[in-house]
């Protein structure tokens, strides 16, 4: 019982996220310092995706790509099921959710899957790891194109995306080009990247914290906490809970209904239900300018912690069922 409760405690990264939000609230940067921070975050994001590309083994991609039915199911859950679920919360917009938080909910639903944690939980549960590597990576790459286009469809002019094609181009330049460059250089730098895996994990987290600080600092300067009622914050948290409570059992049922083995069901459940904070925050930075960015990324920050807790518990249950 104590072990179960220990899973509910926030991890160190979540505590760091909360501390970053608190720091941005009391000490946001302004003027030239804020502009310099903005340029620094752009460089950090490009470096982050360069390293993501360098870490991705080509053998895993080729092995996983053969399982096309599994990938179609995961992509359908990520980019079709979730956006439809997000639209179901539209009646809450304007009273229980501020317009910015509702856009944040839709943005959460339009994001690609995580990469590292999806693979880690699939491995922990005894599932098809090569398929998880391919599915999560494919989701992340397609998210560069699909997330801004989905946001345009879901929000229209209300989403603040004046030119979705321009947004796709900017995201490709900032995320996809470094990713592809890193992957092409993998034959020469893979050894160094593997040796620095533990250090690079903190690089991932540090980049997210940097972007969150910049986003919330700008939003605080624009009056984020004065414009966001406590009811809306509570509702955003409840929406995240409901999304995960619907998605995980629903995706599990769907994978079994389609006849997938438990070995393949595991990556479908984890890759199909998870949403990427590491990819979402940089994409949000490109898509949404101005003081609304902090409120828009709040739902994915909440969902991030929830999915880690729930997926850890489910991965342990799968492992016990598999006799691990």
TrEMBL record:
Gene Ontology CC entries for this record: plasma membrane
Organism of origin: Stenotrophomonas pictorum JCM 9942
Spans through the membrane: 42-58, 70-89, 101-122, 129-153, 165-186, 228-254
Protein name (record): Bile acid:sodium symporter
Keyword Magnesium found: no
Keywords for this protein: Membrane, Transmembrane, Transmembrane helix
Record InterPro entries: Na+/solute_symporter_sf (IPR038770), Put_Na-Bile_cotransptr (IPR016833)
């Amino acid at each position: 019982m104590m072990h179960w409760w220990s899973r509910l405690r926030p991890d160190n990264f979540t505590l760091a996220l909360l501390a970053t939000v608190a720091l941005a609230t009391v000490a946001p940067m302004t003027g030239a310092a804020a502009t310099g921070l903005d340029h620094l975050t752009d460089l950090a994001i490009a470096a982050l995706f360069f390293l993501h590309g360098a870490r991705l083994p080509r053998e895993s991609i080729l092995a996983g790509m053969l399982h096309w039915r599994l990938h179609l199911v995961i992509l359908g859950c990520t980019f079709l099921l979730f956006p439809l679920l997000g639209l179901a919360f539209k009646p809450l917009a304007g009273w229980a959710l501020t317009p910015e938080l509702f856009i944040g909910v839709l943005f959460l639903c339009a994001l690609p899957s995580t990469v590292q944690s999806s693979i880690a939980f699939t491995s922990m549960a005894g599932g098809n790891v090569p398929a998880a590597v391919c599915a999560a990576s494919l989701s992340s790459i397609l998210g560069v194109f699909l997330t801004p286009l989905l946001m345009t469809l879901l929000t229209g002019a209300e989403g603040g995306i004046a030119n979705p094609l321009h947004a796709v181009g900017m995201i490709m330049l900032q995320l996809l080009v470094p990713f592809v460059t890193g992957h092409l250089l993998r034959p020469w730098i893979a050894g160094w990247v593997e040796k620095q895996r533990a250090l690079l994990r903190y690089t991932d987290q540090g980049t997210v914290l940097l972007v969150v600080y910049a986003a919330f600092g700008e939003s605080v300067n624009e009056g984020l906490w004065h414009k966001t009622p406590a009811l809306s914050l509570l509702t955003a948290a409840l929406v995240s809970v409901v999304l995960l409570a619907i998605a995980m059992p629903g995706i599990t049922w769907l994978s079994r209904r389609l006849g997938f083995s438990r070995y393949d069901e595991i990556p479908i459940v984890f890759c199909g239900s998870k949403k990427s904070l590491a990819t979402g925050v940089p994409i949000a930075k490109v898509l949404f300018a101005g003081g609304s960015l902090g409120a828009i990324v709040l739902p994915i920050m909440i969902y991030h912690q929830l999915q880690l807790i729930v997926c850890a518990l489910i991965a342990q249950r799968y492992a016990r069922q598999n006799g691990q």
